[in-house]
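ok trying this again, last paste got cut off
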Amino acid sequence: MEYYPKITIITPSFNQGQYIEESILSVLDQNYPNLEFILIDGGSTDNTKEIINKYAQYFSYYISEKDNGQSHAINKGIAKARGEIITWLNSDDLLLPNSLEIVAKVFRENPNVGLIHGNAILFGKNQKEKVIKIPDYDLKARYLSYIPFPQPSSFFRREVLNEIGTLDESLHYGMDYDLLVRIALNYEILQIPEILSKYRLHKKSKTNNSLGFAKEWCTVFSKVLISLPNSQFAINTLKSLTMFNDSSVKYKYKIPPSNLMVSLLYFLNMQMHYYYITLDLNTVSAIATVIKKLDKKFYKTEKVNVLYYKSKLLNPLIIRFLRTFTR
């Protein structure tokens, strides 16, 4: 008889009534035989509570009360979770059919893996659907630099949290990146080719706050550098761009990175893209110049040069106009 590990899905929610029913059904329609479904609502004032009550019998636990934000809500769910495998699915995102069957099989076949991640489909109103593809190179370096995979398509073992702890509630944009770093420094991570979820973009998406992500990711990556040996050059590089945030708290690690310079390059590249989104073209130019000095090959292969020239040759009004044709 095939063994189905208990999988816990935690859905944090706040005023997402127009999306949450579709999200709930994407979990229930998995028909996974050992599912624990937890919903933590932050005291929504729209029709969310009505929808929660409609499906109340299917939740292992649910509550609607004021909380301190998404990180706090997810941690409340983790405290109730009893699954061997855990993830959170935001109330505007969706699981694709058979995702939990795939996840269970991969974890059964890979007992040493602490986290797995797959692909996702990006979608939304006035948004052309496209697959978010996971890069297949430099993954270990990327895990310390940013999240190279869509969060709704990632799952981790409960025992990982027992050792490294839950989400940092002081972070509202970088809490999943911080968790990934802690896992990557202590556990094996496995990418899989399957598309597991759909990641929705809309006007109220946190994804739209690029500056919020940029700043909190600086905090996390600075902590990475403080925690690891042979990182002074990278620290000095961040300081030269006023991106370094000192911390007295360090990450514990069992698996030190083999090439911190590569992680630095990917971190700077991601920061550059965030600042380009916010049209801070001077910062884009400054970051691109540093990347070119560090590694000319990376500068070209990762198309850093493209953003550099755009930041120099185009003004914000033209960039905004061009974006209307690329959605």
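PB: full thing came through this time. Residues 210-227 form the longest helix (18 residues).
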